[in-house]
Structure formats: C-alpha cells, structure tokens
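This section describes the prediction task in plain terms. A model, or a person checking by hand, is given the sequence of a single protein chain and must write out its three-dimensional structure as a string of tokens. No templates, partner chains or ligands are provided. The sample shown here is typical of the held-out split.
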Amino acid sequence: MGIPEYRAVFLAHSLSLLGVVVSEIALSVLVYDLTGSPLLSALTFAVGFLPYLLGGTLFAGVADRFPARRVLVVCDLLCAACVAVMALPGTPIGLLLALRCALAVVSPVFQGTRMATLADVLGDGDLFVLGRSLLRIVSQSALLVGYGCGGLLLTVLSPRHALLITVATFLASALLLRLGTRRRPARAGRGTPADGPLTGARRVLADRRTRLLLLLFWAPPLFCVVPEALAAPYADRIGAGSTGLGLLMCALPVGTIAGELFAGARLRPATRERVALPLLCFMLLPYLGFALAPGLGWTLCLLVLSGAGNAYTLGLDQWFVAAVPEELRGRAMTLNTAGLMTVQGVGMALAGVAAQFAGVPATVAGAGLLGTLVCVPLALAARRGAAPGGALRKNERPKCETGLTTM
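The expected answer:
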C-alpha cells in the first residue's frame, strides 16, 4: 500500500466492487418487485456470469491495444451509464436484463486490464503476487459484508435509488484511476503490432503452457461453487434456518481470506510456489465429507478448510505473469477473468441439475471427488514441466523460481 499508484487501483477496486454488490441486490429486488417471479429475480444473478465469456473473447484485445488507463476509465464510465439507465423509472424488464448483460461483458475487460496494470505498477515479482492477493481478499470480504449491508440499505432506499449509489461508485472509481495512475502506452505497441481481438485471444491460447496455467485457474472454481449454489436447500435439509444459510454462504470466503492472508504473510515466495500444486490436489477433498450429511458445525469446518486451499493461486499467479509475454498480458488476464466467471456460472447450473436427481449431499460429495480427479492430472502435468529442485529449464523465463516449461 506504500505505492501511490497501487493505492489508487486498490481504492478504485473497492469502490467499484461495492457498487457491483449493491447493484446485484437492488436489481434482483427490483425485478422481483416488478414481476413477482422468483425465476426472473434469480436470472438477474445468472446473466452476470455467462456474458463474461463473450467479453473475454471478443474484447480481450482491447486490454492491450489501447493505453491501460484509458481502458479502465472508459469501462467505469460505461458501467456507470448502464446502471444510470437501470435506475430510470419505467425501464422495462428486458432492458434491465440486457444492461445487466452489458455490465458482465465490460467487466472482464476492466478486470483483465487492471490485473495487467498491476504488473506494470508492482513489477513481475512477489509484490505483484501479494498485490493481486490483497485485491482478492477485498473481493471475498465484500461478499461477507456487502450483501448484508446492501440488504440494510434497501430498508431505507428504494431499489432504483440504491442503484444511484452504484453509479456514484463507478464514477468515483473512474476519477481515481484517471488522476491516480500514470499514462502508459498500449502494450501491443511495445513489442508486436496490434491485432484483432479474436486474433489476440488465439495468440494467448496458442501456447500450451499458457493453456495449462489457465486450466489450473479454472478447474477448481467449477467444482468449488457447488456448495454455494446448493446452500439454501442444504440449510433446509439440516434445519439450519436463515442464520445457518448465512453462515454457509460465508464459510468459503472466510476460508479463502484466511488461506491467502497466511500464505501471503507467513510463507516465502518459493514456498508458496512449492505448495501450490499440493493445495490444488487436496482443496476439494473436504467436500467428500458431505456424503455423511453433516450438521452445521462440521459443514462449516469442511467449507472453511476447502476455501483455505485457494491459497494455491498465489503461486500460480507468479507462474502466469512470468509465462505470458508482456504485449499479451492484458488479453491473457482478461481471458482468465472471463473463464473464471464462466466456469462458476456453469458449475452452479450443473449443481442444480445434479441435485434434482442425486440430492444435495451426494452432489457436493460428487463434486469433491470429480473435481479432485480433474485437478490431480492437471497438477501432474504442471509438475512435469518443472525441473528437479525448482530450477527452470532453459526455455523458461528466469523470473520465477519454480515454473512450467512449454508443454
């Protein structure tokens, strides 16, 4: 936090995240008030996931083709404009959902550009890993307190008035980024000519090592979200009530925060990289305990333990920023963000379908087993890319103490 540019990015992230949380709650309530349909109310959350894939593929090149500061400010202004239209009286339901989709299309471009900017501000080393970890911790913390505060906010404001708060947070974020970060040239001009967005995405995915790293980021969240998606029916099954449901929703974020804080503060960079793959292999195993349909206390322990395994991303972050060429870094980060959100949406949908036939405990336990069977081969493939003792092979970039060679 001692770097002024990072402080500006951090504060802008916090403000825009607050706005997103408030808008999700307010929009969901607004749609339900207008339609009385639980399905359409839930759909306002669902449409926030899958459009990430569209934005992350079609517009990934924007992150590198234009100066990063300009991209970040324009994205914030576009989001503010979309939410402002949502807040207008008489906005029809179809337009509300379309604008929600538009936010989800813009979001991966913004997030990918911001993460690439962190590498410019903090460098490619341990400061980048810790800085990105801190942003993730803020995101998880927002999930813990944001929804509760948003619910309280709606007791004194109408949903449309609450949306105006989101507009203000996006505008404040744009102002912070415009005044608090330095203008840098477009990355595509630093080493290679600018190309089309799909061409840029293909260039990122053309490298087998980068594809493997992206899979290491994407595979666990596909299965991790299953307990969250099924928290309400599971709370009902064990008789936990609304208070228990709130605790179940908080358990994974609490574990994630604890794991990342411990790894970031107490482990050396080389140690974080060494434990990344073991954590990847074991983080979903606690879900197997759901086969016994445990009570609330044991369930919370299982979820916190699994959430702590997300500390594997600290080691993976270092490999990723070292593996991707600088001129493609914005596109790579954008694709990563789009993939993360998309697989979470898919995971939630599949969890609901499976629970209809197998029941909630069996579905969560099955996600733990299947997820482990997916993650272990990926970890072994990554391990084969590292030379004994953590030394890198000659065609690996020298910025990472333990890394992956071209597969």
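For orientation: Residues 195-407 form a domain with the Growth Hormone; Chain: A; fold (CATH 1.20.1250.20).
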